[in-house]
Structures are given as structure tokens and as C-alpha cells.
Automatic annotation (TrEMBL):
Classification via Pfam families: Ribosomal_L4
Designated gene of the protein: rplD
Protein name stated in the entry: Large ribosomal subunit protein uL4
SUPFAM superfamilies cross-referenced by the UniProt entry: Ribosomal protein L4 (SSF52166)
GO MF annotation: an example: structural constituent of ribosome
Gene3D superfamilies in UniProt: 3.40.1370.10
Subunit structure comment from the entry: Part of the 50S ribosomal subunit.
Length: 209
């Protein structure tokens, strides 16, 4: 697949790049995508949820009424979950939601996500971004030139670029990552995936293994 290379003003530079069919042209694997997205979202959970159970409630331990003869259900503790102010029965406890996926499956999921976006013509290749100073306005100008100011976008850079990252940090609809940080959820969650020329080699080397 060939794509034209645009400059930061959105104009065609006259150059084209060839996208690897092994990365951008495979048959998407829906189950691999599901598992990788599930793992990504699970890793975002803090798992610090907690409610007090019966043993953790402060209260009297005496038997609140006699066992028989009251005509109601027997009850042994005011801390029981059936009473107001008692502990919660089977409440949430702190836990780790993360789980393991093998590297080959994660690689397949990311190639599938990129292939879906490529097939839907949601990939854009631009020249390398480089700002002299971190300035949100500079990044907004790039978004407007590419007609992405009202859409969710993912920018993939070849290397660390603090100025570009800081310029985009305040924009909720745009995310900037390195080629090595691409994940399935981020690719599919974007309306457009903007790839810089220098990042293509990194993407191919990371996902073609």
C-alpha cells in the first residue's frame, strides 16, 4: 500500500511511502484485538476498591435478641449485613486486574488494528514534527491543517520529542506516542492515525518480528 507524504500544512510533498503488507495489510484477528484491548483496560484499573465487612465494623458483640420466641428471624450481631450500619456482604476487596498475554498475540492485535485503520483509509503519513518550543498553538495549527481539530487523533513519532509531546498534552482529543508505545486500544480509539516518516521503520521493526 502506498500513501502520499504530507507536510505539516497538509500539502502533498510529492513523495510516497510504501506501507508493509505484513503490518498494515493483514487479515484482522478480532479475538486478538479483543484480548489486547481487554488487557489494556484492565491495566488502567487501580483495584483499590474496598468496603467494610462484618468483622471490620465497630459495634457491640452481644446477641441482640433471644434465639427463639420472637417470631422473627434469629440474629446474633448488630454488625450483620442485614442491618443498617452493618458490614457489606461479599463487598469489593483490593485486587490486581492485570493478566498476561504472550508477545506474539499482542503483536498480532496491533497489526490487526493498524490494518483496520489502513483499510478504512484512516492513516495519514506526514513529515517529521519538530517544534522549537513547546506551544499548544503550534500543535493546534497542525491539527487544523490536517482537518483533525474536531476529531480524535493519534500521532506516532519516531523518537522522543518533548516539545511535540508537551504541545499536545492539553488537548483531550489528541495523543502523541512513540512507535514503540503503540497499543491496540489507542489505534482503534482514534478517528485518524497520523504516522511520521521516521516512525515507519520503528513500527515495522517492532511488529514484523
Amino acid at each position: 500500500m502506498e500513501l502520499a507524504v504530507l507536510d505539516i500544512t497538509g500539502k502533498d510533498t510529492g513523495r510516497k511511502v510504501e506501507l508493509s503488507n505484513d503490518v498494515f495489510g493483514i487479515e484482522p484477528n478480532d479475538h486478538a484485538i479483543y484480548l489486547d484491548v481487554k488487557q489494556y483496560l484492565a491495566n488502567q484499573r487501580q483495584g483499590t476498591h474496598k468496603s467494610k465487612e462484618r468483622a471490620e465494623i465497630t459495634g457491640s458483640t452481644r446477641k441482640i435478641k433471644k434465639q427463639k420466641g420472637t417470631g422473627t428471624a434469629r440474629a446474633g450481631s448488630i454488625k450483620s449485613g442485614v442491618f443498617r450500619g452493618g458490614g457489606r456482604m461479599f463487598g469489593p476487596r483490593p485486587r490486581n486486574y492485570s493478566f498476561k498475554l504472550n508477545k506474539n498475540l499482542k503483536r498480532l492485535a496491533r497489526k490487526s488494528a493498524l490494518s483496520i485503520q489502513a483499510n478504512d483509509k484512516n492513516l495519514v503519513v506526514i513529515e517529521d514534527l519538530n517544534f522549537e518550543t513547546p506551544k499548544t498553538k503550534n500543535f493546534v495549527d497542525v491539527l487544523k491543517a490536517l482537518e483533525l481539530d474536531t476529531k480524535k487523533s493519534l500521532f506516532v513519532l519516531g523518537n522522543d520529542n518533548a516539545n511535540v509531546y508537551l504541545s499536545s498534552r492539553n488537548l483531550k482529543n489528541s495523543k502523541v506516542v512513540k512507535a514503540s508505545e503503540i497499543n491496540t486500544y489507542g489505534v482503534l480509539n482514534a478517528n485518524k492515525v497520523v504516522i511520521t516518516e521516521s516512525s515507519l521503520e520503528g513500527i515495522n521493526s517492532n511488529l514484523s518480528k
